[in-house]
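Margin note from the TA: students keep mixing up input and output lines. Inputs are the sequences; the output is the structure of the whole complex. Example:
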Amino acid sequence: MAQTDALEIRGLRVAVDGKEILKGVDLVVPKGEIHALMGPNGSGKSTLAQTLMGHPRYEVLEGQVLWKGENILELSPDERAKKGLFLAFQYPVEIPGVALGNFLHIAYQARTGQEVPVGRFHRQLVQKLKLLDMDPSFANRNLNEGFSGGEKKRCEILQMAVLEPEMVVMDETDSGLDIDAVRIVANAVNRIFAESQGKMGVLIITHYQRILRYIQPLHRVNVMMDGRVVLSDGPELAERLEEMGYDFLEKRLHEQAGFVKEPSGSD
Amino acid sequence: MSTVDQKLTINDRLSPQVLKDGEPAWLTELRQQAWETFLRLPLPSTKEEDWRRFDLRGFRWEDYHLATPPPYTVVSSVQQLPDPIQSQLRPADADQWAGLMVFHGPRRVFSYLSEAARAKGVLMDELTTDQPTDIVWQSHLHALIRPDTSKFVAAHAALMNAGVVVVIPPKLVLEKPLHLFFWLDEPGAALFDHILVIARRDSQVTVVLHYASPENLPSGLHSSGLELYAEPGAAVNILCLEEWSKSLYDFQFLRGRLDQDAYLKWSLANFGARMKRLDVHSQLAGRGASTDMLSLTIADQNQHIEHHTLQEHVKENCKSDLLFKVVLLDRSSSVYRGMIRVHPKAQGTDAYQANRNLLLSSNARADSMPLLEIQANEVRCTHGATISRLDELQLFYLMSRGLPKRLAEKIVVDGFLQPVLDRFPVPIVSDKIRRLWENKISGR
Ligand SMILES: Nc1ncnc2c1ncn2[C@@H]1O[C@H](COP(=O)(O)OP(=O)(O)OP(=O)(O)O)[C@@H](O)[C@H]1O
Ligand SMILES: [Mg+2]
């Protein structure tokens, strides 16, 4: 049964340049929950994130992605954004000549279909910049151009704060952030989540426990290996993984004969 | 009195014969010489380095005739002009300009020069036999653009069918721009306009040229020349907005010669033409002269637009700064070929040249060839060319924030072109230029 208030990924198989990367992903992230997605390098996490957002290079071979019960795989990226999806990129893209503030004003109006006067928008933007501990001058700088690695990541969360999405995928937003910045970003996510009052779901892709420690509340941790979600458990799974590593997990999964996968959110 | 041999005509409507009536003898002679040059020169071929990408196989002189004058003569107010011309001239009223001249085909149909400008001695006139215009013409015409440069320049010199001369007296600072508008709405018509601008010592002036035709004009030929003299200390802006239909062949030769401490800024916006060659030279012939050369081009469908530039540093301590930006959509293509030439005497030269191309389609093609010829040793010359594509990743990133593809492309193009437009001198024209590129981006 499709859940009307969740992002539901069912048997998703995806290829890039003819190579199959996702080999049947099952994952459910309900609104009002924060999930983590962990897994070794190259296991397909970013592939999943980009596919969810509709990157044209990723070819869906099979499966479904339902958002609020509707299959979104045929939609263009902008249509998905209008439906409330948001991806914080692992590698944010530099756009020369386009000022961040202007861009967000245009994007906000495009995404919500509402016109907002520049002045009012700018006042809101300044608040959000404060939330991310970013200097107001960023509004006038070209989108990501010349931003440091950490600034780019913060800027992704700034965009999320401004665009008010309903389902967020954060692809390794914590990598490249210094210790203070991780806390600032995590707190911002907590705050945006709390303010959404159950209207937003979050999927945090990460390798490290350090960001998850700050995330409140963290509902589930999912593990992806070789193009599948192989394990899904409570927040303490993140700690165990960090202690024991993926090798250990792999062995254990092999030992469990007949183990295939355990979709999250189904318990 | 007929000095032009009848058999030298290509057809009875494309011949200097048509034009000579009532002209001074020196001009008739000049036409004849140019015509002989025209007949002697071959059509440029892609074997010539300078025309390598300009494929003229589809071009035939026989397809054109000299533009015929419209069925009315001079009118006394803009409101009496045909609607299409009026709407092109909006939103500005005549009095937003220090002077306004409107050409419908080869005929000047409206002319206005403000009282103030007239009283201060500004001259803005057609090619006439009246003094002092005739003397100015005779002493300057084709001094900077030699008719044997190419067959198209020779044709232009022989067949010139519209001309404007502007002379700004010494020390006069003309606040409002002069505006020359050319409207071509006759299929197959050829317009060979020539503009001569002389800015006397320490004067300042902005001249706006605007070339337009109905969007669906099926064919046409435009080969124009502009010769500009900036005397010592003069400061001149030449802004040229070209929005021909995408069926015309367009050859534009723009030449500026700068004396000591003079300044010249070219601001060029190119939208139309099936094939176009824009040829712009700034000759820094006096110490301490400086020039800014700016251009923006947006091409789509199968347009082919070429930009050929020369920054010629003849004397010492001159400065030139060139920025040509090109946006290509669909199957369009462009060429940029720019030379910085520094003469042996031109010590202390400071020359900068940048050509930036943005391709929004994988079928578009840009070529960029910066050239240097430096014969002095104390010089600073920098040049750079970039060809970038709005790549899939940038587009995906912008769309993932909720921007439809067209809007994403538009904001990237805005970001690319706006810095050039910001340096253009006449806001009311800049607004128009911006609207034109927005239409071109979103109208696909
Ligand atoms: N164009 C391509 N052709 C072949 N393989 C590709 C292509 N693009 C990506 N891959 C492979 O797909 C696999 C999954 O990549 P993905 O970026 O999704 O991993 P990830 O889980 O996000 O890794 P990381 O933790 O390092 O970010 C990798 O092995 C990668 O090399
Ligand atoms: Mg990744």
